[in-house]
């Protein structure tokens, strides 16, 4: 089953997937000579995507071979139209290139990695690499036990917030309400 293209830019791209969308810009139609292009940019990478004319709309199609080369991360994007010597930015936004399941990478957040490193030290199961792990410029093996417990609580809260939970014990932040007669 084919997935229809969207009429807006994606909020995420999975490397190795096709990406398609259509933009209709009434003031900048392809029939009047306007060309639409996108630029994805973060601190390490820059990608360009060109749209093609599709009647009075601009059609964007990015092949799986192209998206496969996209590095995971958050990207700012901008859409620009050009016609002869005129150039206008018509939209901006942010999207995420998610790690591919085929990729070998640690996709845990900083808070999750740090929490696991602290817990490994506290449980006495730290590997030699983990024993050298740094938090805020300090090495775990040199942090006093009381400070480690305080840092653990701090990172438990951060991880819980990332996961939509309210506290270190994993209590959900949702409030359930039932209305009845």
UniProtKB/TrEMBL annotation:
<protein>
    <submittedName>
        <fullName>Uncharacterized protein</fullName>
    </submittedName>
</protein>
């Amino acid at each position: 089953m084919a997935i229809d293209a969207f009429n807006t830019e994606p909020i995420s791209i999975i490397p190795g997937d096709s990406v398609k969308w259509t933009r209709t810009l009434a003031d900048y139609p392809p029939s009047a000579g306007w060309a639409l292009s996108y630029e994805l940019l973060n601190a390490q990478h820059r990608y360009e995507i060109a749209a093609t004319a599709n009647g009075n709309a601009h059609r964007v199609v990015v092949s799986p071979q192209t998206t496969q080369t996209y590095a995971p991360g958050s990207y700012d994007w901008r859409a620009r139209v050009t016609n002869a010597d005129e150039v206008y930015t018509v939209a901006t936004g942010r999207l995420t290139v998610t790690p591919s399941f085929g990729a070998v990478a640690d996709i845990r957040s900083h808070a999750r990695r740090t929490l696991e490193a602290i817990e490994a030290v506290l449980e006495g199961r730290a590997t030699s690499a983990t024993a050298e792990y740094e938090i805020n410029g300090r090495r775990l093996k040199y942090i006093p036990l009381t400070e480690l417990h305080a840092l653990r609580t701090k990172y438990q809260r951060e991880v819980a917030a990332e996961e939509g939970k309210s506290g270190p014990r994993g209590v959900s932040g949702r409030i359930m309400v039932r209305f009845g007669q």
